[in-house]
Design brief:
Length: 363
């Protein structure tokens, strides 16, 4: 069976990439189609035969792809899927807009409806001048995105949160299959010892605006609590500037080091509203709880009072209040691990395979 997998951009490692790795193990030598491909940053993609769009040949786009969303529709519509028996798009943007031959099933694993056009529009376009200037482009992109969302034969949501957004923005039904969240533990890594404070909270995230990492940095600075921040992104300079002496930025770390940080932290801080949130599952699998903003995927991952605690307003004050009252002794590592195991790769593969069989998409 010849399978094509389509993904927006292959230039990082994160939760969505864990889905791609799992799909690669379900099918024999699948081909991965994408707009751009950064080999140095994505060793996980070597198990695929990767085919890129014409955007790969434009150097500036490889470095600043976030500024060329209007080119993405053309890139994905240009791919040829002749000869494939099944096409699977994994996307939070344009990959769902591919055009496949008649009688070739197209299943979309939707990470979220295009965030900057819909649920995150007001956040991305907070500047009134930018909002005004971008209006024609947004109108065009929304029109295309709605059309693109009709093209998959079936749509899968990675959480109930995403399922609701698909219904709201795309007017489509979907089923929920949770993504695999335990791949970090698959190879039975040995937690690599690193120098850390005796007690510390942890953030593991891309350092971008909508993740709201500044709330964690400000709250821990105010309370003089140790906080370790793992991740890279364009917010690093700003976050460093507002951080107090109890905040440490570690950048990118190995999986072994990450496992150590998970196992030895007091709790993971998760101040953003996420579509799912694989790091919340990972830290629970390491036996630790989560302190999260009460919205999005956190509502499906955390069992309040047992595997974590919520703060109800996305403000420094609300997070400070919860951290002041946080007690490590309230949380049992076995409870956390049991909750985390609900989002295993085994369950993902089983549910996805069963779905394909029911739809008669498997040969």
């Amino acid at each position: 069976m010849k399978v094509a997998i389509v993904y927006d951009r292959v230039n990082k490692i994160g939760g969505a990439e864990r889905v791609l790795e799992s799909l690669a193990e379900l099918f024999e030598k699948p081909t991965l189609f994408t707009s751009i491909y950064n080999k140095k940053k994505t060793p996980w993609a070597r198990k695929f035969k990767v085919k890129t769009s014409y955007l790969q040949d434009i150097p500036i786009i490889n470095r600043r792809h976030e500024f060329i969303p209007y080119l993405m529709p053309f890139a994905f519509e240009s791919f040829d899927f002749s000869g494939f028996d099944l096409v699977i798009s994994v996307t939070s943007e344009a990959a769902k807009g591919i055009i496949v031959p008649p009688n070739v099933p197209h299943v979309c694993i939707c990470l979220t409806p295009t965030r900057y056009l819909w649920s995150g529009y007001d956040q991305y376009f907070r500047d009134p001048i930018l909002k005004f200037l971008a209006r024609p482009l947004v109108w065009y992109m929304r029109k295309w995105d709605l059309s693109a969302a009709t093209r998959p034969d079936e749509m899968i949501a990675i959480s109930k949160t995403v399922q609701k957004r698909i219904k709201k923005y795309y007017k489509r039904e979907s089923i929920v299959i949770y993504p695999p969240a335990d791949r970090l533990f698959k190879n039975k890594l040995v937690a690599e010892s690193v120098s850390v404070p005796k007690k510390y909270f942890l953030v593991v995230s891309r350092l971008v605006d909508y993740k709201k990492i500044d709330l964690a940095v400000k709250a821990c600075t105010k309370l003089k609590l140790n906080l370790i921040v793992i991740g890279e992104g364009n917010e690093l300079e700003r976050l460093t500037a507002i951080a107090g002496e109890t905040i440490e930025f570690k950048g990118k770390v190995s999986d072994n080091e990450l496992l150590f940080y998970y196992k030895n932290c007091r709790a993971l801080l998760f101040p953003g509203e996420e579509d799912f949130g694989i790091t919340m599952v990972e830290v629970q699998l390491a036996g630790k709880p989560v302190v999260a903003f009460k919205a999005g995927g956190a509502l499906e991952i955390i069992e309040e009072g047992k595997t974590g605690v919520f703060f109800t307003e996305q403000t420094v004050g609300s997070l400070v209040h919860v951290l002041k009252n946080f007690k490590d002794s309230r949380y049992n590592d076995n409870d956390c691990k049991k909750k985390g195991r609900q989002f295993s790769e085994k369950r993902f593969k089983s549910a996805f395979t069963l779905f394909l069989k029911r739809k008669k998409f498997l040969l």
